[in-house]
Design goal:
mainly alpha, two-stranded antiparallel ribbon, 10 helices, 6 strands, transmembrane, DUF6534 domain-containing protein
């Protein structure tokens, strides 16, 4: 293995920085989880169970990372060459692989259910690939839990670590590009007043896929250039929490997106799939006749329902069609 020499800064220091960022991200996960259960109490049970499960996995992931931080900064303080076992990282690898599989499957499921054939099979392929990746991640965690030499672990499993990081970044890019294709295709036929809704969906898709894919690529590059340091580990311990934040933000952003749709006169749907139709009453009209008599005429027609789902993908139509919440 080639790369820069091991120092306290590029080993324990890099791992400590990554752990501190990961703990902050877990705080964001907790806040988003609390917001979700407070604002979306009527969501489907499977979705609420998924959110609760992901939070519990994140809590275990955080404990594993912090436990390993204690060992590196206290037990092996100033002695990085003696650091040969890393059971906390092994546990974090296992839980992180499960979290990544859940989140990637969630976003891939939307791709499978929304895209037309044959493009929809991209989503199915991504779901299968995420499950396979989780299997390899479980295998790697088992190796990490029983390893007795850090150098030997990195040398023997360099191909496996490289494959896991590459698969994670590639899946994020494929799912994001597929959803962008879908939204941009719909945007061509959207009304001018509703294109901003589609633009928000495109922007959200890019942001969520960009953060996770760039972090995975950063870990991959650091591992290839400096495999004997812990810089890549600093990236890796943050990866699962970025996935969870992307998952929760996709659920929690529905409220803001529907508010935006309301200003455009679109039909929106709440979390229980009941339609909340925005209506507009016609204003009263004041008519003055020649004999100076003023008569107020108020139109009592039925409220007008504005439904542009035929021309632009509203949140309700996307959720109904895909079976999973949007954005």
């Amino acid at each position: 293995m080639v790369g820069p020499a091991m120092t306290l800064g590029n080993t324990f220091g890099a791992f400590e920085v990554g752990t501190l960022i990961a703990v902050c991200l877990f705080g964001m996960v907790t806040v988003q989880t609390e917001f979700y259960f407070r604002e979306f109490r009527d969501d489907k049970r499977w979705l609420k169970c998924s959110v609760a499960l992901v939070w519990l996995l994140e809590a275990g992931h955080t404990v594993g990372v912090c436990f390993e931080l204690y060992r590196t900064t206290i037990v092996y303080a100033g002695r990085p060459l003696e650091y040969n076992s890393f059971k906390g990282i092994g546990v974090a690898t296992l839980l992180g692989g499960i979290i990544t599989m859940i989140v990637q499957s969630f976003f891939s499921l939307r791709t499978w259910r929304l895209l037309p054939s044959p493009y929809r099979f991209i989503g199915l392929f991504c779901i299968i690939a995420s499950v396979v990746r989780c299997g390899f991640s479980t295998w790697l965690s088992e190796i990490a839990l029983t390893a007795t030499s850090l150098v030997g672990y990195l040398v023997k499993n360099q191909w496996l670590i490289t494959m896991l990081l590459s698969m994670g970044g590639a899946l994020d890019v494929v799912v994001a590009l597929s959803m962008m294709y879908f939204f941009l295709t719909k945007r061509k036929n959207a009304l001018q007043t509703t294109t901003r809704v589609v633009d928000r969906l495109v922007g959200f898709t890019v942001r969520t896929g960009f953060l996770t894919s760039m972090t995975a690529i950063g870990a991959l590059v650091a591992f290839q250039l400096a495999p004997n340091t812990y810089i890549w580990v600093g990236f890796y311990v943050c990866l699962a929490k970025l996935y969870t934040n992307a998952f929760l933000s996709a659920l929690n952003a529905r409220q803001e997106l529907r508010r935006t749709m309301g200003t455009s006169g679109l039909v929106v749907e709440n979390s229980t799939s009941n339609f909340e139709r925005l209506t507009r009453r016609r204003p009263s009209i004041s008519v003055v006749v020649d004999i100076q008599t003023e008569r107020d005429i108020e139109l009592q027609d039925n409220p007008v329902k504005w439904d542009h789902s035929a021309t632009t993908p509203s949140s309700s139509s996307l959720e109904k069609e895909s079976g999973v919440p949007f954005p």
